[in-house]
Amino acid sequence: MNFTTNQTVKKVAGALPVLALTAAALVAGTAQAADMRAWNIHPAGYPNSDAIDQFAAEVEEKTDGEITVKAYHGGVLGSQPDAIEQIRLGAIDFGQFSLGPMGQSIPETNVVSLPFIFKSIPQMYELMDGEVGEAIGAGMEKKGIVPLGWYDAGARSFYNSQKPINTPADVEGLKIRVMNNDLFVGMVESMGGNATPMAFAEVYQSLKTGVVDGAENNPPSYESVNHFEVAQFYSLTEHLIIPECLCMSKVSWDKLSEEQQAILKTAGKHSAETQRELWKARETSSLENVQAAGVVVNTIADKGPFQEAMEPVYEQFLEANPDLVELVDMMRSAD
Ligand code: BDP
């Protein structure tokens, strides 16, 4: 054995007790320093992005730098459906997700993707901050995702390049992009439209080239990724109120001490408070900006016909998910 090897052996031997201690600490959930990554689809400056940045800063400060969170805005860590799976596996630590695409793997989250399930944004807050949010959160935890805060995403409305939509019949024959979830396919088909599930990043080009005629989203997202440039009719159907979450991989969560977990929960709550405030202002300014850019916005006097047309979405969903009937009933009968 030469000198170098000898040194190496000594070093390795010296490191072993440290490694053993680290493993023991992990099992016990004792505090560990960690650099973590957060997935986000929105660009910097979007309310959700600012709220994540605030979360990252608070976590780093309150844990004395034991945990650092680097937020990757603009979807650079991949598409949302992929990121949801990555979080479940622990390959990414945090994500700021719409509950829409989560429905494919977490049935409980689908209750908020039923058209017109919430009667208003204040009602959505009330239910998400209470029993409904708890039931959805429990479903998410079972699938490896821990919610830390519920964000607002307003209401989604249809927009397209052809004409204003005033009645469900106006959707007939239109090719509409939807988020990745069978419920949204059924929703568009219930009005005779052709639904195409597609990643958010691909929608601009698809609208531009006519692969789809339209899509549906809230005003801030319609504005932030420039869909308003290529689909100039925005019709306020407000058919979906889908909250979003700031959430964490359970794999990463389980490695933290109780004290660190408490810090993250509090920072998540603060982050949601900030996001909700920023959201309100952004919704108004986005709608103003797109109108100033020439978008034709129309309101829908009576949304009843849309609600009736979309009723089959409920029937199919409840038939396939009998264990969620009670939760859906609770939501539909809430004031
Ligand atoms: C936005 C959501 C985002 C979705 C996007 C979409 O905030 O999470 O990816 O809609 O339509 O409103 O894909």
Description:
The chain is an alpha/beta fold and 335 residues long. The chain has 2 domains: 3-150 and 245-281, D-Maltodextrin-Binding Protein, domain 2, CATH 3.40.190; 156-241 and 284-333, D-Maltodextrin-Binding Protein, domain 2 (3-Layer(aba) Sandwich), CATH 3.40.190. Helices cover 49% and strands 18% of the residues. The protein has a 5-stranded mixed sheet with strand order 2-1-3-10-4, sandwiched between helices. Helix 7 links the parallel strand 6 (175-178) and strand 7. It is globular. The N and C termini lie far apart (79 Å). The model is unreliable at 1-29 (pLDDT under 50). The chain binds beta-D-glucopyranuronic acid. Beta-D-glucopyranuronic acid is lined by residues 41, 80, 98, 153, 179, 200, 217-218, 221, 244.
